[in-house]
Each structure stands twice: as structure tokens, then as C-alpha cells.
Amino acid sequence: MSETTNNTASVMTLARDNVQQLTPYLSARRLGGSGDVWLNANEYPLPPSFALTSQNLNRYPECQPVEVIRRYAAYAGVQPEQVLVCRGADESIELLIRAFCEPGKDAILYCPPTYGMYSVSAETFGVEGRTVMAKADWQLDLPAIEQALDGVKLVYVCSPNNPTGNLINPDDIRSLLETTRGKAIVAVDEAYIEFCPQATVAGWLQDYPHLAILRTLSKAFALAGLRCGFTLANVELIDVLMKVIAPYPLSTPVADIAAQALSDQGLALMRARVAEISENRLWLQQQLQQTACVEQVFTSESNYLLARFSAASAVFKTLWDQGIILRDQNKQPGLSGCLRITIGTRQECQRVVDALRPLPGANSSISETVSASKEPM
Questions:
Q1: Per residue in 179-235, pLDDT tens?
Q2: Residue 66 gets which letter from DSSP?
Q3: Which of 56, 72, 285, 295 is deepest in the core (most CB within 10 A)?
Q4: pTM value?
Q5: Cα gap 213→302, rounded to integer Å
Q6: Which domains does the chain have, with CATH numbers?
Q7: Do 257 and 264 touch, CB atoms closer than 8 A?
Q8: Does the pLDDT of residue 376 top 70, yes or no?
Q9: Cβ-Cβ contacts under 8 Å for 347 (sequence gap 6 or more)
């Protein structure tokens, strides 16, 4: 073994035990690929245009930029003191765990199939990730959740849910909030709420001091590369999160662009994007339902569609080889044979349909020709 290898091995042994065992979240960028149609990360397909207006880069930024907070509060229909801005909703997930969960003692709870960062963040901080499987219709199994709440400090509910695209029944969320009152924080992840704004629970904050709502500019605002997200909550909860947030979570350029995106003009552009993506989603859903290799297309309230395919791995690889990169959900509980397709431009959606149409359906002799060891995930 070389000296470099020995040094690397010694560094690994210095890491915390749980980190040594940790499998990191496989984001779209980590998975790679060399495509030209990127439909695997739920991004908006075209870049927005912004010009920086702030030039005081020699100074540290505000911890909580006032104009961004003010504009987001007005947009979300809450008070400025109920808004915390941070580096994407992913940081909100981590802040909640760091603030409310004792490593080695407390647990978080989430309901697969759902967003993978809840479990990764919990494992990173040495907190138990407890799961209660969603029901067959991907709604909350409330009796099972109630039975599993012992030692749980934090419950994550994603609505619309990623990767399934469905909304969680609001009556079930209310029941969960009542069950957890005085016991645990309930974090409702609304990363995709712009695609179904009527479903937000932001108006419930006055009734539930233990409710936190996670938001982002990454999806409908077309700013995934900006890394700007928000936590909406009551003042007491925000104050707790402020104890553990970094001193300068948003850089000056990020705050500058975020404020522009939240202006009246920026909000109008966002809503136009939502209308465009919703129209493309309906078109793609109709096309997929007429495609032989597609067994089922699930209803979505987001900027992606989940579909079940015959020979899903071969379908995934075939499109991958044509430069069309989808997200394989085969390994998610209950999602065997499922691929997630971000809604792109109409031309990108057409590329998907054109690539799928020649592929045979379930009654053909096609076999899964791509081995698990070679299949790009």
C-alpha cells in the first residue's frame, strides 16, 4: 500500500463512526451523465437573467437580509418575523435537526417514498431516522405514525411529495399537528408549492407553534444554482433556529438576486413559468399514457411526473444513451419500475416521447438487459 493510500486510510479512521458508514445523498450532479436534455433534478429548463446591483462585496452580508425577508413574507402571506432565509431548503432540514434533536437520543420521522435528504441529514448528525411507510395511495398512515412517535422530535412531511408528486391530505396534516402538539416539530416541505399554491399550510402558523414550513427558490423561481431557501414558522421557533444558523448564510450576490426574484416583476415571471410547466406537464402526461412501454402515469401537482415502465432499467439506459437524463426511482420503497421525469421545454418533452415511442410494451419479449452493476442511477 502506498504512503498516499495509508494517509487516506488513517484520515478515514479519524472520521466519526456514523460518517464512515454514511452513504451520501446522490444528487443529480453527483450522478453525472453527459446528456443534453437534463430532466433528473426538477430544475427549470432555461436560465433566468439577472444583473447584480450591489457592489459592496468588501463587507460581510446581513445574516438575514431585510429586503429578501420583507418581500418573501409579503409573497408568502406571513409576517417578516416568521421568515428565516438560508442556503436552500436543504439547510432548513439540517437546521431543524441540529436545533431540536439530541444525537444518539432523539429521532426524526418521515414517510417513504419521499425526499432522501431527511434521512441523510439525520444520519450525518447521529440522529435516528425512523420511517413509517406511506399508504398505497402515498398518504400518511396516521395510526402507524402515532404508534411510532416515542422519542421523535421532528416529523417531515413533503407536500407535494417528491418523487411521487401528490399532495398530502390537509386533514391528515392537521391531525398530525394535533397529535404532535407539545411533543415534536412538524416540518412541511413545500418546495413545489408554487405549482399548487392553494395547498399551502402557511395560514396555519397562528394555530400551531410547532409547525415549520420549508420553501425554496430552486424550482418555480428557476434559481436552483442560487441556493436560497426559507423556513416559515412562529417567532419562538425562528429564534431557536437563529441560534444554530451560520453567521452569514447568504452571500451578498445571492441576497441581491433573491430580492429581484421576489419583486412584482419577478413574481409575475415565476407565475408565467408555472403556467408554462403545468401546460407541458399535461401534454407529456397525455403522451406518456399513449406510449406502449409506460404502464402508469401518476397525477402530479409539481414540475415532474412519476411513471411506471415495463423494463424500466432498459428504458432508463436507452434514454441515457440518447442524452436524455431521467431520475431512476426503482430503489425507493414501493416505486419498482418507476422513473421520474422533470418537465422541461416542449421540445425536451417531445424528445422524451420520441425516444420512448419505439420501445416495446409489457407484452413484448423485451428483457431487462442492463445489469444492476452497470445501470446508471
A1: 999 999 999 999 999 999 999 999 999 999 999 999 999 999 999 999 999 999 999
A2: H
A3: 72
A4: 0.90
A5: 17
A6: 15-44+267-356 (3.90.1150.10), 66-262 (3.40.640.10)
A7: no
A8: no
A9: none
